[in-house]
Amino acid sequence: MKFLKSVKKFYFHYPFPVTVVGAKHGDKINFMSAAWHAQFSFDPPLYGVLISPKRFTHDLIKKSSAFSLNFLDSSKFRIVHLMGRISGRDVDKVGELNLKVFIGKELEVPILSESYAAYECELFDEKKYGDHTLFVGKIVGIHYDEELFNEKYQPDITKIIPTLYLGSNVYPMFELREIVELEG
Ligand SMILES: Cc1cc2nc3c(=O)[nH]c(=O)nc-3n(C[C@H](O)[C@H](O)[C@H](O)COP(=O)(O)O)c2cc1C
Hints:
With 184 residues, this protein is mainly β. The chain has a single domain, classed as Electron Transport, Fmn-binding Protein, Chain A (Pnp Oxidase, Chain A). It has a seven-stranded antiparallel sheet. Strands 1-11 form a two-stranded antiparallel sheet. Strands 7-8 form a two-stranded antiparallel ribbon. The mean pLDDT is 96. The structure holds flavin mononucleotide.
């Protein structure tokens, strides 16, 4: 195997499923795509997302202490891509892309109606790591399309495949082959 001592950009561990982070402060509503995110805890339900301080969304989360995480089907990859290539500082992305948005039930966070699921998160903790800030949110409400999930709240992969990202503007498209359930 080839060995690299150090690299600046690396995508060996991709693809990542993408989430679209929503935030609102006053009447300013914005969304951005994020590939770097993960569940941190079941109880309490904690979910973290890494956002560069350069992003407008970073400012909005700092001001509002809340954010939403929106999950979109891979068929919507163009929306996801544009959300991640233009800044809400310059453009009203919701208006530009003609998207429907509603406000959360528990928090003043914007939710994309196109999502198959979305989390309302109140800011629980934040810490800077290198060139990104880790925002950890406590999930205080979940919106989901019940036709697309099974009784364990797992996505029905025959109906939805999350948007995946390979880095550098590349989105793999997968065809579902099989689902297996293992004993465990
Ligand atoms: C698929 C995809 C994934 C991205 N993932 C992240 C990420 O995890 N963290 C981050 O800070 N920026 C990420 N970006 C870049 C931001 O989404 C992008 O800079 C966006 O325009 C910021 O918008 P804003 O300035 O309106 O907040 C990603 C972009 C794309 C296209």
